[in-house]
Design brief:
Helix content is 44%, strand content 14%. With 229 residues, it is of the alpha+beta class. A four-stranded mixed sheet has the order 2-1-3-4. A two-stranded antiparallel sheet has the order 5-6. Strand 5 and strand 6 form a beta hairpin. Helix 4 packs antiparallel against helix 5.
Length: 229
């Protein structure tokens, strides 16, 4: 039995469990950012990122699965910015553990630093086909953000937050976190893949994801709940 417990959610935060290459998480994170700005809560609510590492469950990320999901999700949230992989196949990031570790390292600086890096890595992959598995790409993305790059580089090179990533994986193997994305609030709210229900036509990675329902308005409720004391 997993002895590591999911950390408590701090007041005025949304605890976000996700994988960087999960298109459903890309939609959720995009909607969190957009809704927070719309409600004027940028200085009120923070996003506490944790890792639900799909590759540690399923093996290396397959390009086919990601591309077909991007096509499906792009139909309901084109504003999030989805592109199928545009560069050579051998540059595709089949692993994003180092990038996820970088987000956790940035969180040691501040929630804001980790928010910025998480968002920039997702945009880098989904919109710009950047190979976010590679150290130089990760640090290149981080270099344009408001964070301590030297500290991030040292933490990444020392593997300082590898244990934190594996602890998240241990928690992800339990029953509470259902998948990527899963959001938790301090009031007990728990939302797995908020607002979206989906099914697959045909085999996974060879068929097509069909969205049965999409309610983006749930993010307003989530952010308003998070903003309460």
């Amino acid at each position: 039995m997993n002895s590591i417990q999911r950390p408590a959610v701090a007041a005025r935060t949304v605890q976000v469990w996700s994988d960087l290459l999960c298109p459903f998480a890309h939609v959720a994170v995009h909607r969190l950012w957009e809704t927070r700005a719309k409600l004027g809560l940028e200085d009120v609510v923070g996003f506490d990122h944790h890792v639900f590492p799909l590759e540690l469950f399923d093996g290396p990320h397959p390009r086919r699965g990601t591309d077909t999901e991007a096509v499906g999700l792009g139909q309901i949230a084109p504003e999030a910015g989805f592109r199928v992989w545009a560069h050579a196949d051998d540059l595709y990031p089949h692993t994003v553990l180092l990038a996820a570790e970088a987000v956790l390292a940035a969180k040691a600086q501040s929630l804001r630093a980790s928010e910025l890096l998480d968002r920039a890595l997702r945009v880098g992959f989904w919109l710009e086909s950047k190979s976010i598995s590679h150290r130089s790409v990760i640090l290149g993305i981080a270099s344009g953000l408001d964070l301590d790059l030297a500290r991030l580089t040292e933490d990444l090179d020392n593997g300082s937050y590898r244990r934190a990533l594996m602890d998240d994986f241990a928690i992800s193997q339990g029953d509470e976190v259902k998948g990527s994305p899963h959001l938790f609030l301090a009031d007990g709210t728990s939302e797995h893949n908020p607002g979206i229900t989906v099914h697959w036509e045909g085999p996974w990675a060879a068929g097509f994801p069909v969205v049965d329902s999409d309610r983006p308005e749930v993010f307003e409720d989530i952010l308003r709940r998070a903003a309460r004391r």
